[in-house]
Structures are given as C-alpha cells and as structure tokens.
Amino acid sequence: MKAERLLSGLIDWVESVNNRALSECIELVVEGPRDEEALVFAGVRANFTHARNLLRDLRENGETRVRGRTFVIMTDFDDEGRRLHDLLKENVVALGGRVDESPRVEYRKLGLPPLIEDLIGFLERRFPDWDLIRSFP
C-alpha cells in the first residue's frame, strides 16, 4: 500500500476507533500492556481492558459484566490471538454483550502488523514523524 494511502487510512482508522470509544459502554480489549501501549502510541484513546481480566470477570460476574456493553476485541492475528478473539467473542455474545468487529477488520485491511505490539516499530519505520502526525485532530 502506498505511504500516503496507508497514512490516510491509518488516521481514519484511529479516528474511527476513537469515535466509537467515546461511549463509556465500549471497551477495547487487548492481550496485554504492550498491545495497549502500541495502540495508545498510534493515537487510540479508549477504555482498555486486558483479555485475561475480561475472561476472569466473565467467570466471576457473568452477564452483569457484559450486558449493555460493546467490546472491540483487538487481540493479535496469530493463531493464539485468533483463538483468544473467538473465545472472548463467543462468551461476550452468549452473555448478552456486543462485539464490534469493524475496527479489527479495518486494521487488517490496512496491512498493519499481525502482532499489535509491533505497531510501534511499524509506525516509527514508515512514518518517523508519527508522533507529530497523530497530534493533529
């Protein structure tokens, strides 16, 4: 993908995720702190939840944890991450929550790294001034 199209798509993706995350009833689920750090570096502002914490909460609190909430599951795109995504999605939906797949689908369409934590290096290599670029609304 050409750099300018990638840049435009990435900015649009970050804005889209941020617009979704404005609601307090939307949580962005990541595998761990390095994935959260990478998405924050990209400019994502969201109510982050780590997958292991959500799984524990689902076991302990069941439907009261997810009812009326929407989850954007941004686990990695390797085998382990896809299995975790499927497990989380299945449990959230079964307990009455919703899963918004569009940010995950768009991320892949942009050709971004399959391991979310690798997003920092990807952006630093492709767009050395990313920190300046993402500071613009």
Task: Report the helical percentage.
Answer: 55-70%
Strand content: 5-15%
Task: Describe the main β-sheet briefly.
Answer: 4 strands, parallel
Shape: elongated
Indicate the radius of gyration in whole angstroms: 15 Å
Total of helices: 8
The tally of strands reads 4
Strand order in space, largest sheet: 2-1-3-4
Helix and strand element order: HEHEHHEHEHHH
Distance between the termini: 23 Å
Instruction: Enumerate the spans where pLDDT stays under 50 for 5 or more consecutive residues.
Output: none
Structural class: alpha/beta
Average pLDDT over all residues: 93
Description:
The protein has 8 helices and 4 strands. It is of the alpha/beta class and 137 residues long. A 4-stranded parallel beta sheet has the order 2-1-3-4, sandwiched between helices. α3 packs parallel to α5.
Task: Give the gist of this structure.
This protein is α/β, with parallel strands linked by helices.
